[in-house]
Write a structure and sequence with these properties.
The chain is of the alpha+beta class. The chain is built from 10 helices and 5 strands. α2 crosses α3 and α8 packs across α9.
Length: 241
């Protein structure tokens, strides 16, 4: 190990300590390791809290891997006892809950990016596909959002009646469907496009507009409407066979 990594926090200049950096510069200027170090508070008798934080990240496979780490897995890391493991898990869960919270002021969806960014943080690290609907009023403001289905998308399991029942219950004028690809690649599959066709047609019948279908990847998204695959061209649909 690099001798510099063995430094205790007390040996590091005050302006370089994680808590001091957060106070002086703001949390957005702290690295992932520094934020974890703040949660951990202390290191061990043989290494600084920053070195311990770097090891936690390394063992978890980075910040993305950390979101799926269990209490037992954290406690297997040398220097991490139950108290420190609980602190890390509490910080992760608080971040999840904040990202899921809908602001009191209704968000207006003007572009596909608006919808993608609204759910990106909570959906990009999920291990299964989640199918979420954003229900909109006549001014494209988000009334509510709900996860309708969890699992691989296909036309046999994503039923328009389930989706539009929720839309009608909220008196929605329109909706945007969003689902994630755990692989991180947001490009649509054949099944994704088939589901979109069915939902679009059902929306035309019940009078609730399907505004877009967006697929979320790892920090990126794919809007079927933005990419010219939406709204559905019935001639192209029939030519699919």
């Amino acid at each position: 190990m690099n001798p510099m990594e063995q430094l205790m926090i007390r040996d590091v200049p005050e302006e370089e300590r994680p808590r001091e950096r957060l106070i002086q510069l703001g949390a957005e200027h702290c690295s992932n390791a520094e934020l974890i170090a703040i949660l951990l508070r202390t290191g061990t008798s043989s290494e600084s809290v920053m070195t311990l934080a770097h090891r936690v990240l390394s063992k978890a496979g980075g910040i993305r891997g950390l979101t799926d780490t269990t209490l037992e897995e954290l406690m297997e890391i040398r220097g991490i006892g139950k108290a420190k493991a609980v602190q890390i898990l509490a910080g992760i869960e608080l971040g999840r809950r904040i990202s899921r919270a809908i602001p009191e002021e209704r968000m207006t969806i003007r572009f596909p990016r608006d919808a993608a960014e609204m759910v990106m943080d909570e959906m990009r690290y999920l291990n299964q596909e989640h199918f979420v609907c954003l229900f909109l009023d006549t001014k494209n403001r988000v009334i509510d959002k709900e996860c309708i289905f969890i699992g691989s998308l296909n036309t046999s399991v994503v039923h328009p009646r389930e989706v539009f029942r929720e839309a009608l219950r909220r008196s929605s004028a329109g909706m945007i469907c969003v689902h994630n690809h755990p692989s991180g690649d947001p490009h649509p599959s054949r099944e994704d496009i088939d589901v979109t066709y069915r939902l679009y047609e059902a929306g035309e019948i019940v009078g609730v507009e399907l505004v877009d279908h967006i697929i979320v990847g790892d920090g990126c998204y794919f809007s079927l409407k933005e990419k010219g695959l939406f709204p559905v061209d019935p001639i192209a649909r029939d030519q699919r066979g």
